[in-house]
Amino acid sequence: MTRFHTRWGLQDTGSCHAVSVIPDKPEAAKVPAADHTLRILSYLAGRPAPVAASAIARELELPRSTVYHLLSTLAAHGFVLHLQEERRWGLGTSAFELAGGYTRQQPLARRGAPLVAALSDRLGESAHLAVMSGGDVLYIVEERAPRRPALVTDVGVRLPAHLTASGRAMLAALPREQVRALYPDTSAFPVRTGQGPQTPRELRELLREVRARGYATEDGEVAVGLRSVGAAVLDASGWPVAAVAVTWGIEELDEALLARAVQETAALLESRLRR
């Protein structure tokens, strides 16, 4: 029997959980190295957490030496990461770049834009939709409310995920091993205003609070005087494909009220993507 691995992505039909059609043992592969490489990436994409090289070799029925050579090459190009302490391998930032590029295509933006616009109209504040791209968030929909503060979150802008409400919402929904791979040490924590987590421990604590609260916040860490709340948009497997957020100025608004509206919009987008 031929087996197929599940792979995260978006498709034009509106489903945000696509099924890869890369079989375990394709017939008559003309370029074995390329075939093995794609099978390894597909396998890692379908795992909920990083795995050992021996497991990859066993599951894909490949020689261990081949798997180690290909993993080393993929790591050199950023497509996989080696977690040395755990002796396991997971997807790297270059793989997320590819996933983010696909996510940025029409289906998500088309379905998200009217919902983000409605959210902005409802609250009278600027709203946006963003996706993960490596350790950054990439803004794909931006709805500016009239007479509200100027923002840096134009469509196509990237910001460090750990500083933004959108990024924190998505990071909190990722497997902890993946977050650790993205933020292995203090060098992975750029700052903009001198605020925000600057160590893996600080980030872990922040994300723990996000999970407990159900939404993420940010106060002056992207731009002084601006605050945001964000909620993740999850696919059918629980993977964060995007996040909805609202940003406002120094006014003392009801954060819980804004957060509920953002969560409702994220849930509505989830339902539309899964149709």
Describe the fold and architecture.
Residues 31-121 form the HTH iclR-type domain. Keywords: DNA-binding, Transcription, Transcription regulation. The protein is an alpha+beta fold and 275 residues long. It has two domains: 4-91, Arc Repressor Mutant, subunit A (Orthogonal Bundle); 98-273, Beta-Lactamase (2-Layer Sandwich), CATH 3.30.450.40. The protein has nine helices and ten strands.
The top level CATH class name of the largest domain: Alpha Beta
**Main sheet: strands, sense, barrel:** 6 strands, antiparallel
Spans of at least 5 consecutive residues with low confidence? 1-28
Strand order of the largest sheet: 7-6-5-10-9-8
Classify the beta-strand content into a percent band: 15-25%
CATH architecture of the largest domain: 2-Layer Sandwich
Q: Average pLDDT, to the nearest integer?
A: 84
The rough form would be described as elongated
Structural class: alpha+beta
Compute the number of strand runs: 10
CATH topology name of the largest domain, in short, is Beta-Lactamase
Radius of gyration: 20 Å
